[in-house]
Amino acid sequence: MKIKNIMSENVVSIDKNLNICDCLRMMYKDNLSRIPVTSTNENKKELVGIISEKDIANKLGSVKYGDLAPSHFYVSTVMIKDLITVDADDDLTDVAKILIDKNIGAIPVMSDGEMTGIVTKSDFIYLCKAKAYEKVKVKDIMSTDLISVSADDRLVHARKVIMDSGIGRLLLSEDDELAGILTSKDIAKALVSFRKHTSGKHMAAKIKELRAGDYMSSNVQKISAEATVPELADAMLETGFNGYPVVNSQDQVVGIVTQSDLLELIYEIETQ
Description:
The protein is of the alpha/beta class.
């Protein structure tokens, strides 16, 4: 199957000269995690980069940018310029391998030198509803190497753990129990608000007072280790969640399963 058969054709893009507040508004409005970045030259849009929630969270929490207001963070300074693209006629499994190997969430799709679509990990999830996946359970693909921090930890610490670990979400604990999940989107939103409402001279000291638990999602949806992969795919497609904590029959968290785990399974099955 070619990647053009599953890609999203209605691509939302953003101009490189807009600021990240504009970018986040677009992300929230259209429920996007990343957006291709364009530059207009002679009334023609040229693809020049891609920007994600994680990129925004990374830049906003960096001491390098000191007390800079979020309105002064332009898309061009935050975006990833070293673009990876694929051709619309590339094989689905080849594109899946790129997403896995590069640990990225989306790739712009090109045709005759122009962007004609974008493919994300979530575009692959529909494949998991096929009969070949029914015999695979969540416990067979989940990660048991759980990365978590305390809900009382500083937000900047949680941000660093996410960046250093290359993950998109972090489990937060309280009294040795799962208290919530913190995502890159939560961090980006929190840091934009913080920089908007904190004067420059107080920023360095005040940012250390932000608690991770104040910005987490506490109403955590979980999935059983015994659930099948099609059941997991249905849950992801229905909720839009990219990952779930996995629980055993005693409701104890024993792992986490994400779209990346599903993508690796898809690659394995589709290349057999």
